[in-house]
Design a protein that fits this description.
single chain; Cathepsin D, subunit A, domain 1; 21-stranded mixed sheet; four-stranded antiparallel sheet; 8 helices; globular; PEPTIDASE_A1; Pepsin A, putative; glycoprotein; Peptidase_aspartic_dom_sf; signal
Length: 468
């Protein structure tokens, strides 16, 4: 992966060749699709191993991040690198870009040059030359964010203004640009400059929207639409009361099926609940001041993990963030498979092994896929797999459909699609928490659930339903 210094150097070399112009409804529905390209039929294990590995890499980033109208509908589509993508229209006149919808980060950024550099972006069926890019020079509403613009501080913190060395302290305006950003993700990174732009929805236009204009990235062929809880996120910039989505099941192919992402910018609804949804409150990470990156996560209070009828005895310290900020559960649309801390994973895996002891453990498949436990069910006339239920504060229960937590690797083997790191697989952490959230609820486990982030009432709602 490119270092921060090399990214900065290349960023400045690229930027020197570009010119940016300096120019002082109630519901939006956007199609949301899974980021899946056709899986090589000859090696399904390798593909599952890819998803498991990227889920763990994403978890490591979220656990140890680096601090660097009323309703609108838009479709979401699945992508091969694990997330769900949406399209946004920006600029004057409008240009359309594709972005991964991510509740685990906040900045909205996109490739914005024909010379966009993306290292290690050789994903299956991905042609980097054909990825839509935003061109600021073609938009009359594009403006670079100045160093003393308050929105520069949204990304870099209030101390950034002390670094505006080329600005007269007495001057009202400053032409020095906000510093280049470098953002690290679990899978890769991106670097670029901050823009003010117009974002266009049907019958509604929002001006002066802060966005990142990325010139180079590693393993990030498309942009990111940050839906986290920081000021620069799309929900906070649009003043959303709530947003919701229903993720279609992954087909592991190029099917153009999508579902809707709904952005609610309507008037206050006080305590109004959506019919049929179970709710649990969002939780604050009290130690987030020591690590501001934790502030953008959506923490929920997971009370119980239930396998079949057995309550897995997860230590309380894993379920609630401690005074050090570590522990607790977050909801993340940018993770594929749900991640659980090593000690919790061992308890969960062993409970499945105990209740499925009449099936042979497929150790070879476990090594090939990185998933565990896997069971050989070939030759079985009928197979009984225990239910998996997450119970949250307030009694809300998320009982997962079987396809949300077990994958059929081939005709004869099934694997649990919940992951942990290598130490967990060896049972080596001894019940000690590592840094960051202990449980990360990924998008694979959210399939075919209507999911609502009620920002106005600070709560998380869900119900099972078909999303197709």
């Amino acid at each position: 992966m490119a270092t921060a210094s090399s990214l900065l150097l290349l960023l400045f070399l690229l930027f020197s060749s570009f010119v940016f112009p300096f120019i002082s409804p109630s519901t939006i529905t956007i199609p949301l699709s899974p980021t899946i390209t056709k899986r090589p039929s000859s090696d399904p294990w390798e593909y599952l191993n890819h998803l498991a590995t990227t889920s763990i890499s994403r978890a490591h980033h979220l656990k140890s991040p680096k601090t660097n109208f009323s309703l609108i509908k838009t479709p979401l589509f699945s992508r091969s690198y694990g997330g769900y993508s949406m399209s946004l229209s920006l600029g004057t006149p409008s240009q359309t870009v594709k972005l991964i919808m991510d509740t685990g980060s906040s900045l909205v950024w996109f490739p914005c040059t024909s010379r966009y550099v993306c290292a290690s972006c050789n994903f299956p069926n991905t042609d980097i030359t054909k990825i839509p890019k935003f061109m600021p020079r073609l938009s009359s509403s594009s403006k670079l964010i100045g160093c003393k613009n308050p929105k520069c501080a949204w990304v870099f913190g209030s101390s950034v203004q002390s670094k505006c060395h080329n600005c007269n302290p007495q001057a009202q305006n400053c032409t020095q640009a906000c510093p280049p950003y470098i953002i690290q993700y679990g899978l890769g990174s991106t670097a670029g400059l901050l823009l003010s732009e117009t974002i266009n929805f049907p019958n509604k236009t929002i001006s002066d929207f802060l966005a990142g204009c990325s010139l180079l990235s590693t393993r990030q062929p498309e942009g990111i639409a940050g839906f986290g809880r920081s000021q620069e996120s799309l929900p906070l910039q649009l003043g959303l009361k709530k947003f919701s989505y229903c993720l279609v099941s992954r087909r592991f192919d190029d099917s153009p099926v999508s579902s809707d992402l709904i952005l609610d910018m309507g008037p206050s609804t006080s305590d109004s609940k959506t019919t049929g949804l179970s709710y649990t409150p969002f939780q604050k990470n009290l130690a987030s001041q020591s690590n501001p990156a934790f502030q953008e996560y959506y923490y929920v209070m997971l009370r119980k993990i239930i396998v079949g009828k057995t309550h897995v005895k997860v230590p309380y310290s894993f379920l609630v963030p401690g005074s050090d900020g570590n522990g607790g559960t977050i909801v993340d649309s940018g993770s594929t498979f749900t991640f659980v801390e090593g000690h919790v994973f061992e308890l969960l895996a062993k409970e499945f092994e105990k209740q499925m002891a009449n099936y042979t453990v497929a150790t070879n498949v476990q090594k090939l896929t990185g998933l565990r436990p896997c069971f050989d069910i070939s030759g079985e006339k009928s197979v009984v797999i225990p239910d998996l239920t997450f119970q949250f504060k307030g009694g809300a229960k998320m009982q997962l459909p079987l396809s949300n937590y077990f994958a059929f690797v081939d005709m004869g083997v099934v694997c649990l699609t919940i992951v942990s790191d290598n130490a967990a697989a060896l049972g080596g952490d001894g019940g000690v928490r590592s840094s960051g959230p202990a449980i990360i609820l990924g998008n694979f486990q959210q399939q075919n659930f209507y999911i609502e982030y009620d920002l106005e009432n600070d709560r998380f709602g869900f119900k099972e339903q078909s999303c197709a």
